[in-house]
Amino acid sequence: MKPLDKSDQRQLLVIARRSIEAAIRRDVPAGPVTVPLSAGLIELAAAFVTIHERGELRGCIGLLRFEVPLWINVRDAAAAAALDDPRFLPVDAAELSALELEVSVLDPPVELPDPAGFVAGRHGIVVESGLRRALLLPQVATEMGWDETRMLEAVCRKANLPGDAWRDASTRLYVFESTCFAEADLATEPTIG
Predict the structure, then answer these.
(1) Which domains does the chain have, with CATH numbers?
(2) What's the pLDDT tens digit per position in 22-78?
(3) pLDDT tens-digit profile of 95-117?
(4) Which terminus of the chain is more solvent-facing, meaning fewer CB atoms within 10 Å of its CB: N or C?
(5) Alpha carbons 84 and 81: distance in angstroms, whole number
(6) Is there a contact between 171 and 127 (Cβ–Cβ < 8 Å)?
């Protein structure tokens, strides 16, 4: 996927926020801000939406639907992050003004035959073993100060696997890169809507 321009990034963040507001009100899913949509917004791409409240994680859900337009994945992931992240109670209307949103647009994962090829902070990681699967975004390593080994151990634990499962030949690893942008990144620029 080619890089999104600032206008597309702004529109995706607005879509995410409107989707959260609609989900909390149990309203119909939010639509795009402007029509027609740019080529970047209708391109098929997976996305994660991360919600922070006063600097603390409040929800994060992603949709690895590479056959769905980006704007729809952002809309649906935002609603899911607000209401369906099993680590948190659903977001309520009183919290809306304190929420800070971040969108990650993912490149398709590629199999990693040798864990030595994993670069923490550059790559996101997916681990699969049997029916267990988990994913960590590239920025997690930077935010947590993790090196490659710590990131690989963390994604294994997230999948309810032993921390060293990434060393097992039957465990499959995939890497991906992503483009991440947040409301705070674009706060000083003009907004849509």
Answers:
(1) 6-107+178-186 (3.30.700.20), 110-176 (3.30.1490.150)
(2) 999 887 666 666 668 899 999 999 999 999 999 999 999 999 999 999 999 999 999
(3) 999 999 999 999 999 999 999 99
(4) C
(5) 6
(6) yes
Q: For residues 180 and 137, is the Cβ–Cβ distance under 8 A?
A: yes
Q: Report pLDDT for 31.
A: 63
Bridge partner residues of 58 (DSSP): none
**Are the beta carbons of 119 and 173 closer than 8 angstroms?**
no
Q: How far apart are the first and last CA of the chain?
A: 26
> Is there a contact between 171 and 119 (Cβ–Cβ < 8 Å)?
no
Tell me the two tokens of residue 183.
């409301």
Rounded CA gap, 119 and 80, in Å? 29
